[in-house]
Specification:
alpha+beta
Length: about 350
């Protein structure tokens, strides 16, 4: 009996084990198939037209503009928020102006002091000119007095020789001549001193004193202009009409030139799509390809693309879709396409699936 049981039991056990093994393999394959569904790289075009698929990223026309202050300082106020539209010259944020205001005030005081010194020198120049004129007039008067005294002395000599006047009177006339001559010499010396003083203050004669005072005024005014320019650098304004894309600064923060991230980032209101085409597809690409884009995660109408230009260089691939099987060790050519004006719902930085026209027969 035991022999008969072994003869029939062992084959039955082997058959049961084989059936269980087959069922286990079938369940494992089904689970693996459900865990790894196929992942298409891009949404397929609706029509069968020859196109090249690629990834596109929305960006402002002309790229983003990162704005930092030209001088370091503490932010006093932020005047814009993300999404605001700004005009050329509109202030975006400003630094604390306390120190700059103090420097401007000091420069204004220096200008006032220099102008006061220049006015004083000009008044002295006018006085020196008047003194010189008076000295010259005194020289002329002394010259006339000397000539009159000399004439009287000559007449007196003739009269004294004829005993018409006493010798004592003639001596007085001779003393008058000597006195007049000495006075003339004194007046000439005074005139020379007045002329020397005037030449120091006369701008037409290259007067050094007045020139120095005038140069001091010019220097003070230049320092004031520099202080005002430095104060103007504390306010950062929009270089053109744009949209505020990001604001990464708050009042009270310290910022400096070249800050990363930039305190304010601007972009044009007109949007473009930068599309990456793999280098292995470049031979199929048209010279001025048309195309369309599809928004990810939304079933909507195609967004028509208007070709603008192709970048001159092929660069390493940077914009990745994250799809399984995507090549990341390739290089791409970037194409720039204009977006329609009514594509206002698109956001800067958004990724679209783009389909670019291929050559006929490619």
């Amino acid at each position: 009996m035991s022999r008969r049981l072994l003869a029939w039991g062992l084959p039955l056990l082997a058959l049961l084990a084989l059936v269980l093994a087959v069922l286990s393999i079938q369940r494992s394959n089904a689970a693996r198939a459900q865990a790894a569904p196929p992942a298409p790289a891009l949404a397929a075009p609706v029509a069968a037209e020859p196109v090249i698929g690629g990834l596109g990223q929305v960006e402002p026309l002309g790229g983003e503009v990162s704005l930092s202050p030209e001088v370091a300082g503490v932010v006093a106020e932020v005047l814009v928020a993300p999404g605001d539209r700004v005009a050329r010259g509109q202030p975006l944020f400003a630094l604390d102006p306390v120190q700059a205001d103090a420097r401007v005030a000091q420069a204004e005081a220096d200008v006032a002091a220099a102008e006061a010194r220049l006015a004083e020198q000009r008044a002295m120049s006018a006085k020196a000119a008047a003194d010189l004129d008076a000295a010259r007039e005194a020289v002329a008067a002394a010259q006339v007095a000397l000539e009159d005294a000399e004439a009287d002395a000559r007449v007196g000599r003739d009269l004294a020789a004829g005993a018409v006047i006493p010798a004592r009177e003639q001596e007085g006339r001779e003393r008058a001549v000597a006195t007049a001559r000495a006075l003339l010499l004194q007046r000439r010396a005074e005139a020379m001193r007045a002329e020397a003083a005037y030449r120091l203050l006369d701008p037409e004669a290259g007067g050094a004193t007045l020139a120095v005072a005038a140069a001091a005024v010019a220097q003070a005014r230049a320092a004031l202009a520099a202080a005002e320019v430095a104060r103007g650098l504390l306010s950062v304004a929009a270089p053109g009409d744009a949209v505020v894309l990001a604001v990464d600064v708050r009042p009270g923060e310290f910022v400096q030139p070249g800050a990363d991230p930039a305190p304010v980032t601007l972009g044009a209101s007109d949007l473009v799509l930068r599309v990456q085409v793999d280098e292995e597809d470049l031979g199929r690409l048209s010279d001025a390809p048309a195309g369309y884009a599809l928004r990810r995660g939304a079933e909507g109408a195609r967004v028509p693309l208007r070709f603008l230009r192709a970048e001159p260089r092929v660069v390493p691939k940077a914009n990745l879709s994250g799809e399984a099987g995507e090549r990341v060790d390739t290089r791409v050519l970037e194409l720039l396409f204009g977006l329609p004006a009514d594509a206002g719902t698109l956001r800067v930085g958004e990724t679209l699936d783009a389909f670019v026209e291929a050559r006929e027969g490619a």
